[in-house]
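Lab meeting, item 3. Inverse folding demo.
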């Protein structure tokens, strides 16, 4: 639930990302605040932590293949979040969990996380788009000081908050405007993001990163048209389907497409691929997108 107001975006200090939600009681987990200062909780963090909490309640050998989350209220990044995990199914091949995330008395989101044991498959998959290799692209640190990205609105959308993930942007301002409603970005875990040798941690990386830049995709092409416009976005529903694992430390490509806007709603899809061409995951998201008039 990445909620942004380009006219009123406050900076904050990001705290270290936790290894795992801490078990407080049977089926109840806690995570610490993620920021100091006024900031709403990043939706990808909620998806990631809900999935991690559920992962600690299934038998060894089960891996998440689907996480679907409904955002009900904005989270407060300065407050701890509690995750209550309920077992819906414990089967030989599949397990399903409901996860409720609360802050105080407020239920902020509700997730269903599904797990399966790995089974042999035919291996058919979607083909990775032809894009530049991540090593050939400028780093985020280089882009931040680039005179080519001097527009403050664009800078706020691209770097409005810190994340424990490294990104390499394929589509910068000119190509974003040309593609109109499509965004492609490479990403990988930054040092210290969980344990990259653990499959659950690699699934958590997908959960976290799958929400980054999605709601920004329909906005970025229009920033030069009405510089005085201020957009309000809020993710309402987010789904991630994990098709296969990937090599620890590898770069991952997220291709995001804004499919349609209707009224105040926007629907987007994404596909995630690994460097070697494997189709790793699929993403779908619906959110609110409005232009502020005051």
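The presenter then showed the designed sequence:
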């Amino acid at each position: 639930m990445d909620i942004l107001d380009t006219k009123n975006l406050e900076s904050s200090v990001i705290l270290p990302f936790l290894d795992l939600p801490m078990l407080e009681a049977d089926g109840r987990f806690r995570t610490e605040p993620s920021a100091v200062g006024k900031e709403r909780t990043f939706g990808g963090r909620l998806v990631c932590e809900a999935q991690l909490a559920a992962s600690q309640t299934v038998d060894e050998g089960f891996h998440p293949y689907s996480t679907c989350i409904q955002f009900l209220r904005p989270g407060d990044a300065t407050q701890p979040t509690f995750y209550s995990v309920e077992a819906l199914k414990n089967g030989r091949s599949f397990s399903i969990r409901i996860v409720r995330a609360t802050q105080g008395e407020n239920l902020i989101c509700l997730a269903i996380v599904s797990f399966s044991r790995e089974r042999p498959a035919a291996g058919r998959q979607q083909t990775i788009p032809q894009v530049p290799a991540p090593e050939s692209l400028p780093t985020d640190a280089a882009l931040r000081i680039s005179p080519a990205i001097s527009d403050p609105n664009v800078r706020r959308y691209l770097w409005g908050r810190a994340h424990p993930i490294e990104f390499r942007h394929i589509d910068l301002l000119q190509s974003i405007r040309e593609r109109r409603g499509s965004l492609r970005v490479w990403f990988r875990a930054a040092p210290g993001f969980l344990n990259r040798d653990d499959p659950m941690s690699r699934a958590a990386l997908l959960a976290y990163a799958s929400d980054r830049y999605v709601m920004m995709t329909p906005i970025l092409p229009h920033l030069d048209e009405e510089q005085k416009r201020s957009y309000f976005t809020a993710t309402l529903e987010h789904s991630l389907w994990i098709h296969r694992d990937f090599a620890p430390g590898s770069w991952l490509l997220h291709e995001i497409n804004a499919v349609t806007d209707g009224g105040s709603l926007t629907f987007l899809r994404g596909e995630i691929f690994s460097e070697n061409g494997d189709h790793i995951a699929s993403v779908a998201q619906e959110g609110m997108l409005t232009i502020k008039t005051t």
